[in-house]
Amino acid sequence: MISLLSKLGYTLDFNTQVWLKADCESIAYNDGDEVENRITSAIAHAKDVSLFSPELKKHCIDWPSLYHLSAGRANILRPFRDILPDADVLEIGSGCGAITRYLGECGANVLALEGTLRRAVVTRARTRDLDNVAVVCEQFHKFASSQKFDVITLIGVLEYANLFMPGESPVHNMLQQVKSMLKPEGRLIIAIENQLGLKYFAGAPEDHHGQPLYGIEGRYKEKQPTTYGRRTLKNYLHQAGFIENHFFVPFPDYKLPLSIITQRGFSNQEFDPGMLVTHGVRADPQLPPHLFFSLELVWPVVLKNELALDLANSFLIVAQTSKIKLPAPEVLAYHYSTYRSKVFCKETLFLQTKKGDIEVQCKLLESTIFQNIEDQELSHTFEKRADYIKGKLLSCDFIDIVIRDGWSVEEVGSFFKKYLSIVVSLISKNNPIKEIDIDTLLSGNSIDLTPLNIIIKENGEPHAIDQEWGWNNSISVGFLIFRSLLWLNNIISCYGKPESTVPNTLLGLFLALYKEMGFEIREDKIQSYYELEVLFQSKVAQDKVVIPHLSSSLRTSNLSHLINDYTNYIQNIENTLIEREHHIRNLEYVVADKNRHTENLEHTFEEKDHHIRNLEHMVAEKNLHIENLECIFEDKDHHIRNLEYLVAEKNRHIENLEHIFGEKENHIKNLERMVEDKDRHIGNLEYIFGEKDNHISNLERMVEDKDRHIGNLEYIFGEKDNHISNLERMVEDKDRHIGNLEYIFGEKDNHISNLERMVEDKDRHIGNLEYIFGEKDNHISRLEHKVEDKDRHIENLEYMFAEKESHISNLEHMVADKDRHVENLEHIFAGQASHISSLEHIVVDKGRHIENLECMFAEKNRHIENLECLCADKDRHIEDLEYMFAEKDRHIENLEYMFVEKDRHIENLEYMFVEKDRHIENLECMFAEKESHISSLESIVADKDKYIERLEHRFGEKGNRIKSLEQMVVDKDKYIEHLENISLYKNRKILFLEQIINSFKKKKIVQFSLYIRKKIIRNPIKICSKSTFFDKKWYLDYYPDVRVSGLDPVIHYIKYGAAEKRDPGPNFSTRYYLEENPDVEKMGINPLVHYEIQKNFLIE
Are residues 525 and 636 in the same domain? Predict the structure, then answer.
């Protein structure tokens, strides 16, 4: 390949690894700089660029990235997998390398042509680890190669011939040039959209121009991408010299096909392709939300009239210049499951056997991958071969119900009751289920038993198919119903218009369905079902998954429904406008009334203010006298607070000293108990040390000594309990002392409470003063004079009302004009209803009209809101004024009452001066007593500290003695363990020799057993040390206790390691070897020694 490209004048760019000429001209074609730069960056930064790369899968966030990065793109070539290894393949138009990657992974020698330099660089980046792929940046008509190819692909390229091929007949010229580059038995593989595809009749936009009906109406122009019907494509191919042309139909189309049906699949009377076709409609990511008709209803009619090949959305064509056998001619259809984890992706083949029967074959796409599925919940299995069952999928009944107008929840409920009875009959043949409710548990193997996997035979018998998933926990009936409806919802492209009682959200449909089936359920349980389904799908995909949210709306709209909904919406808005007009007039009347009432209140308010000012002047004079007295009182209070603060400080200091004293007492007791424990512990250790020496001489006597020791400990525990009782009595004495202290503090609190009550009495004396309101009747008479002024104001408002009426009539004229505009639009719509494309223009007009009405509606709303706000403001203002009247009245009463209270308060303050002086003398006496009590407590604390220091010194000496004794015990334990291990080894060796002696007696000695004894007796340590499976370094690192013991790892493994099921190295499992050879363990032979002797025996 390198020499060929070099001869043609191409050089390899070192940075991009793309072959190109010096005068390379890149064609003007891309999906937009932002999109292609994003895809370029994703591939460049990905460590894994394989077909099923999880990294690239995360970047599939919109249609362009899904098209260029999805593993589903390769499905279009999977039917030809067997002819690709070692084949010379020319890929024309590699794009961003999605198909190139698949061809390279299949082992083909790929030469990828791409006319855009940026895309050529991306293609090479996607195949950078494949040496069998070469990428050339060149336009196809300029690529003059003498090399012939086994396969040439035009995947999504032939439709662009008018743009990039020269000549009067670009399509014919491209096919002629392709033919000239094919080997005699080579094949051309074409994938292209069908100009007359059924989805384009339903209103889907033409893929390259984005306009509905563009291709069907033949609006293509020169130098535009152009698609063709089946007959036109056949003529082009025959004229170019391709005599054998086989048409395949990919569904939903060639870009991301789930199913591919052959011509034989459509013509075979025993095979029904309709299930694959109708259930793949929703899988088309380019399908618009609004269609002229339901594709699920139309496809069965198309198939029945044998028009599927002519109305297919896309074609997959294999064109040949000679009559050679087509790969896998017996296959009727292919189906691919690739939207899951790489290890689970599979291919399903429907093929006709030599006997004429139809067989279903399944296999994993990546069969070479080691499936290490360590999941305690998910299991995966499938039948590799199964008989084809002719019938109708149960899910088709659900589709027939919900895609027709007028469907109801009752019909859906009847379908699911039937489905549930079928499930029960399939899973409980041997163990019938008597009663079914929402929480009835079913086997986890029934998680895949959804209506999509149940086929009803022609005799009405149900049969489960494609049962590949299992859940290792039981599942409830409610969850099975949930996931069944969820997956049925996913295959519906557009629901019919239901009855008005049917909810319009997925959650609402779930709740209505469970209720219809007689099951009571809450939303939180449905949410738990949703979370369990997300968990299940994430384990299948081995990645985060996104499934339709419970709040998502049902897809119920098509164009005819949309127009009716817009018309009804316009009518509702107009009716609402009329109601808003009436509401505006009513609000304006209310505003006028509120204004009049507000003015009356404001006048009354002014009179109240004048009377209040007179009273406040009189109160101010009284306040001056009270302030003078209060200044004197505050000086007294300040002196009292200072004394009380000093007393409180002394109290806190006493409390701290008493607290420290209590802690010292507790600490001394703890130290004394610890010293006693240390003494007992030393005695116990010395006793155990003596017992260890005796145990070395005779291990059996140790059990008896231990029993006696337990008796001694129980006696000691009794002594402990008596000591604890004494300590508890001491604690009770301490508690009584604390109670006495708390009683003294309570007396102090009572004294403080008395002081606080005196302050509260003072605050009540400074409270409210009330009395007399004599001028109120006079103010009312003056208000009546103001009524005449308000009458004149009413006349002004009536004039303003007339202006408002004029404005309202103008608005009504505007609404009438809008009504006439709507009638004109409806007349236009009725005149052009025969033309399908005009529906969209009417929708646009309706949309604009709705926007205008909504603008008017918004204006009305704002006007109403302003009026309502004005009314609310008026109400609040009136309420404020009325509240202020009441406040003024109360304030006047308070001021008059305060005159009397002020005089009483002055008398009380003078009396309190004498009481304050007495209180100061008492506090000074208490202060002297506190000082004496503090000095005595500090002396006691100092004595306690000295005693604690002596106890801590003794405690340290005891601790050192204990450590030395414990170390001696550890040494003795190690020595005992060593002796026990030696004894265990001796016993095993005796057992082994006894078994050998018994074998002699029974005269069943074979040559191998003689060989084993000879080798074992010779030197088992030498055998292990020479074994390739014994790794000393690994053994010491993996078992750190061996390193600590200081034993040689080989000796440790011979004596102890094998018996403890330890492994001699990372590549030899002791446990597994003994389980596979139980006689070795019974004989007490080291497993590694046995293995090495057996191996040497076989060699010798």
Answer: no
